[in-house]
């Protein structure tokens, strides 16, 4: 029963269904570090986005508060800064500095969180070496680290190492949500949007639908030049997670609006494009896509 609680929370978290994660937490008592690690990230997102659809009635335990504090102080800012332009040496220095701080403040029983935080930094910088320094037992933390290692190799265009790591994920658990997601991303990065679309359908059949999977479908459709179909699906996602306040990872909200802005431009829907830009600015003015888009517009204006 306890493992089932963890599994349900993990599936909901990685599909971007944060409301489901918090529902599971409020309905169950389960003491596990990795479970708390998932819940803490959903709690931080809830505090940030303040969705009206979520009402928190359960008081967090001292351990959950401790983990949430660590994640909020270190992981949240790192995720916010993940698209900043830095050199490899600067990335390494940043990871080393954070690693030292974390080892000084994190209790021994929570040392696994150090690896996860540094792994997320490494995904962003494509620096694999600093993410995987410590030997870890084969548990849920290690499985997420494997997935992050896969993403590091994928973003670094090291498809051989990414495929090898995907095999490790399959050996760990062939039916896990992270294994399914890894296969989708591998297909996308390999320039196989049709196959990625099929993998998404299989994932939906296995775990249910989510805004994350719908956003991935939109990406597949864009790569196949099916812009009208992608735009219709994008509007559906916006209605789901913004208009109806279906609580989701903010990153998925930003991806949805970014896709709609690009598609509006491609389909010459200027009024809707301006609307989506305004909504995205309200959600996150420092959004990386928004910065790049505004720079592009500025250059075009200067040339015209």
Number of helices: 15
Helix content: over 70%
Q: Determine the mean pLDDT.
A: 79
Q: Which H/E pattern describes the elements?
A: HHHHHHHHHHHHHHH
CATH topology of the largest domain: Serine Threonine Protein Phosphatase 5, Tetratricopeptide repeat
Content-based structural category: mainly alpha
Number of strands: 0
CATH class of the largest domain: Mainly Alpha
GO molecular function: structural molecule activity
Subcellular location: Cytoplasmic vesicle, COPI-coated vesicle membrane; Golgi apparatus membrane
InterPro entries: Coatomer_esu, TPR-like_helical_dom_sf
Family: Belongs to the COPE family.
Overview of this protein structure:
- This protein is globular.
- The N and C termini lie far apart (64 Å).
- Helix 4 runs parallel beside helix 6.
- By secondary structure, it is mainly alpha-helical.
- The chain has three domains: 1-67, no CATH class; 102-190, no CATH class; 204-303, Serine Threonine Protein Phosphatase 5, Tetratricopeptide repeat (Alpha Horseshoe), CATH 1.25.40.
- The protein has helices at 2-14, 18-27, 33-49, 62-80, 88-105, 112-125, 140-155, 159-172, 177-189, 193-207, 211-223, 227-243, 250-266, 270-283, 288-303.
Quickly describe the structure.
The chain is mainly α.
Short key terms for the protein model shown above:
304 residues; mainly alpha; Serine Threonine Protein Phosphatase 5, Tetratricopeptide repeat; 3 domains; 15 helices; 74% helix; structural molecule activity; cytoplasm
């Amino acid at each position: 029963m306890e493992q089932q609680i963890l599994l349900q929370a993990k599936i909901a978290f990685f599909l971007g269904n944060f409301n489901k994660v918090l529902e599971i937490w409020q309905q169950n008592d389960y003491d596990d570090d990795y479970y708390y690690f998932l819940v803490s990230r959903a709690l931080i997102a809830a505090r940030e986005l303040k969705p009206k659809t979520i009402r928190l009635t359960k008081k967090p335990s001292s351990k959950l508060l401790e983990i949430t504090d660590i994640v909020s102080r270190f992981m949240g800012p790192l995720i916010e800064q993940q698209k900043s332009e830095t050199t490899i040496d600067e990335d390494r220095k940043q990871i080393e500095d954070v690693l030292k701080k974390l080892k000084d403040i994190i209790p021994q029983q929570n040392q696994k969180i150090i690896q996860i935080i540094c792994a997320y930094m490494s995904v962003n910088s494509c620096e694999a070496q600093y993410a995987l320094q410590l030997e870890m037992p084969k548990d849920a933390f290690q499985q997420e680290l494997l997935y992050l290692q896969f993403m590091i190799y994928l973003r670094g265009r090291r498809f051989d190492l990414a495929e090898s790591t995907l095999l490790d994920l399959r050996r760990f658990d062939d039916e896990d949500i992270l294994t399914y997601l890894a296969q989708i991303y591998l297909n996308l990065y390999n320039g196989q949007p049709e196959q990625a679309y099929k993998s998404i359908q299989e994932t939906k059949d296995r775990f249910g639908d989510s805004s994350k999977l719908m956003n991935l479908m939109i990406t597949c459709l864009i790569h196949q030049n099916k812009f009208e179909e992608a735009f219709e699906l994008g509007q559906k996602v916006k209605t789901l997670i913004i208009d109806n306040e279906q609580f989701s990872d903010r990153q998925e909200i930003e991806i949805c609006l970014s896709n709609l802005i690009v598609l509006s431009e491609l389909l010459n829907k200027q009024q809707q494009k301006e609307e989506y830009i305004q909504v995205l600015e309200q959600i996150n003015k420092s959004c990386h896509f928004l910065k790049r888009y505004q720079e592009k517009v500025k250059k075009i204006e200067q040339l015209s």
